[in-house]
């Protein structure tokens, strides 16, 4: 990135951080090289096959929370949709060409939208809550 700080450089770093959290992989892992990067690794599975690259500990945590909140056995579609959206933000922020990266304002807007979907997901209908207790 050249040593100088810039908004575009910060966005790139943020995108890579998101992808690291989702996959539990680092850009320097042996998996990457010969044209494959953390960015391309994540981009190639979106949106249909995100579960293939998700950190298994993250999946376990999500499944446990889903069972506790809703009694579901598997990751629900809304949660997976939010993870896909979050990963898309990471991919859009880590595009190689700086002017093609997602803008800060758009990142914030998208993250707020994801958060709103997650909060809506966690609102349990009173009948479902009574069934779980």
Automatic annotation (TrEMBL):
InterPro entries: Kinase-like_dom_sf, LRR_receptor-like_kinase. It comes from the Eukaryota. GO terms for cellular component: membrane. It comes from Gossypium aridum. This is Protein kinase domain-containing protein.
């Amino acid at each position: 990135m050249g040593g100088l700080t810039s908004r575009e450089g910060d966005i790139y770093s943020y995108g890579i951080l998101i992808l690291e959290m989702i996959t539990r992989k680092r850009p320097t892992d042996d998996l990457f090289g010969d044209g494959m990067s953390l960015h391309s690794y994540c981009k190639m599975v979106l949106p249909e096959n995100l579960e293939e690259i998700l950190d298994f500990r993250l999946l376990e945590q999500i499944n446990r929370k889903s069972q506790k909140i809703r009694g579901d056995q598997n990751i629900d579609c809304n949660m997976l949709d939010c993870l896909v959206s979050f990963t898309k933000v990471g991919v859009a922020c880590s595009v190689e060409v700086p002017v093609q990266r997602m803008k800060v304002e758009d990142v914030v807007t998208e993250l707020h939208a994801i958060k709103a979907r997650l909060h809506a997901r966690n609102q349990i209908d009173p009948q479902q809550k009574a069934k779980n207790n």
